[in-house]
Amino acid sequence: MTRLGDLERAVMDVLWDRGASAGSGVTVREVAEALRDRELAYTTVMTVLDRLAGKGMVERERAGRAWSYRPAASREAHIARLMLDALDLAGSRDAALVRFARSVTGTEADVLRAALAEEAAEEPPAPSAAR
């Protein structure tokens, strides 16, 4: 998964915050307007969106004469992929997971337990060995 630079992250945040993945996309002008406090040129925003499309982070389609952009994945899916990529960097994935589990808050641990229990309940039973 691609790590994002500061400006790329700001652009993606606009797309994610506007719910562009659920419906219609967002135009370059709309992104530039949402980031007006950064005083970015329209062409800068267009270049960032074009690069994000090249990286597979956004999908685009024609909307009249302009392009409309939407995230290729949700913010949560992107963060989960980054976490998995970080685990791949660990010498011991198990040790990194244990360290992570010990560093979360009690509420976060409850969320993890519930997600693991839900996943375990959805798994089909293992086939029994033939006798």
TrEMBL record:
<dbReference type="InterPro" id="IPR036388">
    <property type="entry name" value="WH-like_DNA-bd_sf"/>
</dbReference>
<keyword id="KW-0804">Transcription</keyword>
<dbReference type="GO" id="GO:0045892">
    <property type="term" value="P:negative regulation of DNA-templated transcription"/>
</dbReference>
<dbReference type="Pfam" id="PF03965">
    <property type="entry name" value="Penicillinase_R"/>
</dbReference>
<dbReference type="InterPro" id="IPR036390">
    <property type="entry name" value="WH_DNA-bd_sf"/>
</dbReference>
<comment type="similarity">
    <text>Belongs to the BlaI transcriptional regulatory family.</text>
</comment>
<keyword id="KW-0805">Transcription regulation</keyword>
<dbReference type="InterPro" id="IPR005650">
    <property type="entry name" value="BlaI_family"/>
</dbReference>
<keyword id="KW-0238">DNA-binding</keyword>
<dbReference type="GO" id="GO:0003677">
    <property type="term" value="F:DNA binding"/>
</dbReference>
<protein>
    <submittedName>
        <fullName>Transcriptional regulator</fullName>
    </submittedName>
</protein>
